[in-house]
Amino acid sequence: MTKSPSAVHGTFSIARELPHATERVYAAWSEPKAKAAWFSGPSGQWTPLEREMDFRVGGRERARGRWTSGVVTDFQAHYLDIVPLRRIVYAYNMHVDEKKISVSLATIQLETLGPKRTRMTVTEQGAFLDGYDDAGSRERGTGGLMDALTKSLES
Questions:
Q1: Measured between alpha carbons, how far is 20 from 82 in angstroms, rounded to an integer?
Q2: Which residue has the higher pLDDT, 44 or 109?
Q3: Radius of gyration of the chain from Cα atoms?
Q4: Residue 44: left if φ>0, alpha if ψ -120 to 50, beta else—which one?
Q5: CB within 8 A of 35, min separation 6: which ones?
Q6: Cys-Cys link to 7, which of 80, 91, 127, 154 (CB 3.0-4.6 A)?
Q7: pTM passes above 0.90
Q8: Which residues, in sequence order, are CB contacts of 32 under 8 Å at separation 6+?
Q9: What is the mean pLDDT of the chain?
Q10: What is the pLDDT of residue 134?
């Protein structure tokens, strides 16, 4: 880790076509119980310690948990823009063991392709702080979360 303050930037987008109505996909993002079903670390590897969600413009979300290694991760978000069934924009800080490692802007866009078909595009713009080397792990982690979201919609 470097001693002087620094920021390295990264951007990625992940698009998925889902065989579900836009209302159902939106609910997976906007309803606390539905989001808790997929927005977490892998089962058996991550234990939730704190979870809260106030889904509205100006609202906040937090998901804090401990990995089996003992490392604690803490996702702290602030909702900036919500267009029901179309767009969600939030900024979030990511902490590892109390150290802030990144600040990001996430945009979720939903496009109805048919009665039971939705294109979901997640775009993140991140600033990785003070020597934290992401090496693509955020994009891989977000891809894993999109897989978990997809699986949660199937149940």
A1: 20
A2: 109
A3: 16
A4: left
A5: 28, 29, 53
A6: 127
A7: yes
A8: 51, 53, 55
A9: 94
A10: 80
